[in-house]
UniProtKB/TrEMBL annotation:
<dbReference type="InterPro" id="IPR016156">
    <property type="entry name" value="FAD/NAD-linked_Rdtase_dimer_sf"/>
</dbReference>
<comment type="similarity">
    <text>Belongs to the class-I pyridine nucleotide-disulfide oxidoreductase family.</text>
</comment>
<keyword id="KW-0676">Redox-active center</keyword>
<protein>
    <submittedName>
        <fullName>FAD-dependent oxidoreductase</fullName>
    </submittedName>
</protein>
<keyword id="KW-0274">FAD</keyword>
<dbReference type="InterPro" id="IPR012999">
    <property type="entry name" value="Pyr_OxRdtase_I_AS"/>
</dbReference>
<dbReference type="Pfam" id="PF02852">
    <property type="entry name" value="Pyr_redox_dim"/>
</dbReference>
<keyword id="KW-0285">Flavoprotein</keyword>
<keyword id="KW-0521">NADP</keyword>
<feature type="domain" description="Pyridine nucleotide-disulphide oxidoreductase dimerisation">
    <location>
        <begin position="346"/>
        <end position="456"/>
    </location>
</feature>
<dbReference type="Pfam" id="PF07992">
    <property type="entry name" value="Pyr_redox_2"/>
</dbReference>
<dbReference type="InterPro" id="IPR004099">
    <property type="entry name" value="Pyr_nucl-diS_OxRdtase_dimer"/>
</dbReference>
<feature type="domain" description="FAD/NAD(P)-binding">
    <location>
        <begin position="11"/>
        <end position="321"/>
    </location>
</feature>
<dbReference type="InterPro" id="IPR036188">
    <property type="entry name" value="FAD/NAD-bd_sf"/>
</dbReference>
<dbReference type="InterPro" id="IPR023753">
    <property type="entry name" value="FAD/NAD-binding_dom"/>
</dbReference>
<keyword id="KW-1015">Disulfide bond</keyword>
<dbReference type="InterPro" id="IPR001100">
    <property type="entry name" value="Pyr_nuc-diS_OxRdtase"/>
</dbReference>
Amino acid sequence: MTATDTPLDADLIVIGYGKGGKTLAATLARQGWSVVMVERSPMMYGGTCINTGCVPTKAMIARSEHLAPGAHPQHYREAVAATADLTATLRAANLALLDTVETATVLTGEAVFCDAHTVEVHTTDRGTVTVTGRHIVIGTGSHAVIPDIPGLRQATNVATSTEMLVHTPLPGRLVVLGGGYIGLEFAAMYAAYGSQVTILERHTAILGQEDPDVADCAREVLAAAGVRIVTSAVIDRVDDQGDGTSVVAFHTDAGPETVPADTVLVALGRTPATETLALDRAGVNVTAGGAISVDEHLRTSQPHIFAVGDVNGGPQFTYVSLDDHRIVLDQLTGSGTRSTADRRAVPYTLFLTPPLSRVGLTERAALEAGRTIKTAAMRVADMATVPRARIVQESAGMMKVIVDADTDEILGAALLSYDSHEVINTVALAMRHGITASQLRDEIYTHPSMTEAFNQLLGALH
């Protein structure tokens, strides 16, 4: 429905067009609720995932995976253009999701709280619109952190992950600040297109939350792709060279060092996007880290205001935001019993080539919890009963599973392998529904598939 500059009253105001907010808004609008959706940017209908996150990055990765070694600037330009077309199509579809519903109004502009029930929206096309809502959902997501490293903010060749997705031409030398998920994904992707990539990671190892054997295998995969990883690296400054390049100065225990960069990617974490909302006017509390404080039902300090997605400080995954919407919907129209405490065995994937997917406990965490365990860990290349990996010429990586030795309960798994982002869901489903390791081992799987690896992997438990 077309926005107006007259005051609006709504059953529900949603601030932020991300997965949780848009799904909740569309569901309740179809049920007859009057809904006002506020999105600050016309380039973000549908949220981070489809515009600057999961979808465009995975599209770029997919187009890089089978390139021969060497620089591929033309393939890179084509990938950037194709990804832009893809996100534009998805944006339009997401706008239509609400804009075509009679009971929904989409306002494009900055939302600022006036009080606990009222929001002013400074729209891009119709002036300021005042909206009063019975219920309010905040889903404004997060944004990249740019730390106070000398020269970093002044350098002309510095980019966040969002800016990299529209960045042309292909950088010859890419320096990635941070070896977290975003940094590693972009490093692997740009190396595949032919950039000379250096990762500067302040910790003593990448993927420190993983078991050492899994992290070491991931590092081998990255090294084989041509990525240089420098750990225990403290970044001292970034010196702009005045010609579109810069030099990054850092030091390790071995002493000072510099690395030249055509582009510097800042991947040093993300912070909840709450700065412009004036939450204090609404009486909405935030944590010390800037996230909106919520209870297990995602209610804020104001019971009629909820927060979903990255902004509430939970796991920064689109599928968690989708589950957030289910919890809020249950509060508004259901039994009110669903909560974040119901979540079990939530998997995640780091999209290297091959991807690393994990669910549940690591071996280290299981032992620290006092569990008596059995483990199995196998290199994919050594798994003779899994020909699928060889068929697609993706035999790098390893698979690992952790099982309770007394109960046969699956405690966790790490899969660094082809199609692991699909296979991990089978493990997670088994964990949620009490399927034992022996039962998963003895199931009948299609052939050739990566799932049939469970026959051999779980048979190797000791």
